[in-house]
C-alpha cells in the first residue's frame, strides 16, 4: 500500500525541553515526509505495491536499496513517534518483569541501550527487540531495523544527527539519556510486546 505520513500523536512543542518543536518540524514534517514521497515514487515501479509495509521492508531488503531505505525509515518513524509521549510513562509491571528476566534489570538495560546508540558509528538506530521469545538490545546502521534479522522491534531510538543536532549538537549520549529517561512511551512498547506474542 502507498505510504502516508501519519500525524504526530502530540503537538510539535509537546516534547520540550527534551525534543524541541524545531526538531520535530524538520524531523517529522520534512525528513519523514521525504521518505514517504521518495518511497512512493519507487514503490509505484515495483510489484510490491499491494503488500503491507512490513512485507515491503522485508522483501526489498537486499533487493532494492532505494525502496528498502525509504520503506524501512517510514516504518521506523511511524513507530518512533508513538514510542514517545510527553513526560514519558511508567514501565508497566509485566514489561519490567520481562526486562528483569531477559536483560538483567532496568539499570542494565538502560546502560546497554544507551551504549548501543552511542556506539552506532554514523547514522542508525538502537533497539529493544524480541527475538525467539526473548528481549534483546541491538543496533542497526542507516534505515535497517530488527525486522530484517527476524526480530520484532519494540523500542527504537533514532541516532541520525537530524534527530538531535538542533537540541544537543554533537552530544549524542546526552540526547539518548534524556530520551530514555523522559520521553519513552513504555505503554506502547508493552503493546508491541503483547501483540507479538
Ligand atoms: Mn529520523
Descriptive overview:
The protein has 197 residues and is mainly α. The chain has two domains: 21-82, Helix Hairpins; 93-195, 3-Layer(bab) Sandwich (minor pseudopilin epsh fold), CATH 3.55.40. The protein is 50% helix and 12% strand. The chain is built from eight helices and three strands. The protein has helices at residues 21-43, 53-60, 65-82, 93-103, 106-119, 165-168, 172-182, 186-195; strands at 124-131, 134-141, 152-158. It has a three-stranded antiparallel β-sheet. The longest helix has 23 residues, at 21-43. It is globular, with a radius of gyration of 16 Å. 35% of the residues are buried. The model has no long low-confidence stretch (mean pLDDT 97). The chain binds manganese (III) ion. Manganese (III) ion binds at residues 27, 31, 77, 158, 160, 162-163.
Task: Output the keywords.
binds manganese (III) ion, Helix Hairpins, three-stranded antiparallel β-sheet, minor pseudopilin epsh fold, globular
Q: How are the strands ordered across the major sheet?
A: 2-1-3
Distance separating the two termini: 25 Å
**What is the CATH topology classification name of the largest domain?**
minor pseudopilin epsh fold
**How many beta-strand elements?**
3
The proportion of strand residues reads 5-15%
Q: Please state the overall shape, judged from the principal axes of the Cα atoms.
A: globular
Amino acid at each position: 500500500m502507498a505510504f502516508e505520513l501519519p500525524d504526530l500523536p502530540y503537538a510539535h512543542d509537546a516534547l520540550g525541553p527534551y525534543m524541541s518543536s524545531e526538531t520535530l518540524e524538520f524531523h517529522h514534517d520534512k525528513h519523514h515526509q521525504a521518505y514517504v514521497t521518495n518511497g512512493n515514487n519507487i514503490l509505484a515501479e515495483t510489484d510490491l505495491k499491494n503488500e503491507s509495509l512490513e512485507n515491503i521492508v522485508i522483501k526489498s531488503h537486499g533487493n532494492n536499496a532505494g525502496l528498502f531505505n525509504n520503506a524501512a525509515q517510514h516504518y521506523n518513524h511511524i513507530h518512533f513517534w508513538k514510542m514517545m509521549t510527553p513526560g514519558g510513562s511508567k514501565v508497566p509491571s509485566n514489561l519490567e518483569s520481562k526486562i528483569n528476566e531477559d536483560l538483567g534489570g532496568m539499570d542494565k538495560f538502560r546502560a546497554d541501550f544507551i551504549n548501543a546508540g552511542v556506539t552506532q558509528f554514523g547514522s542508525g538506530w538502537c533497539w529493544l527487540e524480541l527475538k525467539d521469545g526473548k528481549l534483546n538490545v541491538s543496533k542497526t546502521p542507516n534505515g535497517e531495523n530488527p525486522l530484517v534479522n527476524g526480530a520484532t522491534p519494540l523500542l527504537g531510538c533514532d541516532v541520525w544527527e537530524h534527530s538531535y543536532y538542533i537540541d544537543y549538537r554533537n552530544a549524542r549520549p546526552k540526547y539518548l539519556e534524556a530520551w530514555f529517561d523522559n520521553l519513552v512511551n513504555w505503554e506502547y512498547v508493552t503493546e508491541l510486546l503483547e501483540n507479538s506474542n
